[in-house]
């Protein structure tokens, strides 16, 4: 008789667990969410000014909003100094920055890349970014 009581108790606990998990899934599911979704903020390095940044990247936000139902995307222009505090404080959800800043964001805050920007020029698409670091030779000084 003791075995039967333990099994019934276990089945009861399992049933309660299943019901609670079901409620949790319903509450966090976007389809059943009662709270208004906050916009997805894309921080974009505004290297040529705020207006140019919004003009250039707003069509991307509009496209994503159109293609991903239930989500609204907005562009948040950031400068090269402020981008670090925006990421650190969670003020943006995604970031579009140059490779140098990205490496720092990855090192400092665990940023993770998900895509590579293709720049289109006269001779085609380019995904590589180059730079040169000049260091004076101490022997020449």
Summed up:
With 141 residues, the protein is an alpha/beta fold.
Write up what this structure looks like.
- The protein has 141 residues and is α/β, with parallel strands linked by helices.
- The protein has two domains: 2-32; 40-123, D-Maltodextrin-Binding Protein, domain 2.
- Helix content is 44%, strand content 15%.
- It contains four helices and five strands; from the N terminus they run αβαβαβαββ.
- The strands form two sheets. It has a three-stranded parallel β-sheet. Strands 4-5 form a two-stranded antiparallel ribbon.
- Helix 2 links the parallel strand 1 (40-45) and strand 2.
- It is globular, with a radius of gyration of 25 Å.
- 11% of the residues are buried.
- The model has no long low-confidence stretch (mean pLDDT 77).
Features:
single chain; 141 residues; alpha/beta; D-Maltodextrin-Binding Protein, domain 2; 2 domains; three-stranded parallel beta sheet; two-stranded antiparallel ribbon; 4 helices; 5 strands; 44% helix; 15% strand; globular
Q: How is the main sheet built?
A: 3 strands, parallel
- State the CATH topology of the largest domain: D-Maltodextrin-Binding Protein, domain 2
Backbone structural class: alpha/beta
Radius of gyration, in angstroms, nearest whole number: 25 Å
Order of helices and strands: HEHEHEHEE
**CATH superfamily heading of the largest domain:** Periplasmic binding protein-like II
Number of helices: 4
- Strand order within the widest beta sheet: 2-1-3
What is the mean pLDDT?
A: 77
CATH class of the largest domain: Alpha Beta
Shape: globular
Helix content: 40-55%
Alpha carbon gap, first and last residue: 93 Å
Residues in β-strands, percent: 5-15%
In CATH terms, what is the architecture of the largest domain? 3-Layer(aba) Sandwich
